[in-house]
Design goal:
The protein is mainly alpha-helical. It has a three-stranded mixed sheet with strand order 1-2-3, covered by helices on one side. Helix content is 70%, strand content 11%. The longest helix is centred in the first third of the chain and has 32 residues, at 2-33. Helix 2 (36-62) packs antiparallel against helix 5 (144-170), helix 2 runs parallel beside helix 6 (176-204) and helix 3 (77-106) packs antiparallel against helix 6. Strand 2 (241-250), helix 8 and strand 3 form a beta-alpha-beta unit. It has eight helices and three strands; from the N terminus they run H-H-H-H-H-H-H-E-E-H-E. The chain has two domains: 2-204, Cation efflux protein transmembrane domain (Alpha-lytic protease prodomain-like, Up-down Bundle), CATH 1.20.1510.10; 211-286, 2-Layer Sandwich (Alpha-Beta Plaits). It has helices at residues 2-33, 36-62, 77-106, 114-141, 144-170, 176-204, 211-221, 256-273; strands at 227-238, 241-250, 277-286.
Length: 287
Amino acid sequence: MKERDNAIKKVGVLGITVNFLLLCVKLVVGLTSRSQAMIADSINSAGDIFASLMSFIGAKVSSKPKDEEHPYGHGKAEYIFSELISISMIIAALVMLNNSIQSIILNQKLDFSIWLIIVCVITILVKFCLYLYTRSQYRKYNSILIKASMEDHRNDMFVTLGTLIGISFSLFNIYFIDGIVGSLISIWIGFVGCKLFFESYRVLIDTTLDKNEQEEIKAMINKYPEILHVDSIATKPVGDRHIIILKISMDGKKTLSECHKISGKLKEDIIIKFECVYDVVIHINPH
């Protein structure tokens, strides 16, 4: 877990540093050329900085060990901070959409500059490298905060590609494309923000494991001849993992010691097989 938390912090620090540099460059070039697509792209970078900062703080909070008030640790902090990231993305998208629509209505012109092209190309290359890095870390540690950064970097590549298209049209004195691209960027950022919001929301309201995973657990339980029936399976998310709450029926004539030994072995087997399981609570009903 310590290695996982350090990976999240590293992703956050790297994102803050790179996105801050890109923000400064994009904002200067966007304002001087009056490109709404580039300005929207720079605001997107500002959102990326906030997202990376939330990832770093979220990792700090979620890595705190369990205590008397938090017997299962602070794992859900990851999802609380990912909610904040998603809300910031939605707000930024609305602001950018408003500015872009005004640009289309007023037919605002931009001053073409070769620097607009250079900044776009550099951004795409940098974001591609960051995407590859965060994807490898997400596959290794399965953190929603790393996933948020990974999707952010991937989306930024397409966002900046759209910016590049809008700027290219200005060479032919077609300026409304810039505002349209800015609007599409805003809508895309809002969509990703909503998607991340509901993914985190599902965990925070204690959504259970999917049916396939539950069936796998039932299949494992059914291999124990001493267990006569699986009465119920419930789960509670804790960070990126779950607590499994089982109710099973066993022969009422068995001793407490026998039942405890069987349930202990079952708990151990489930935790070993399923990486997503943090703990297993078993209640035995006499049959």
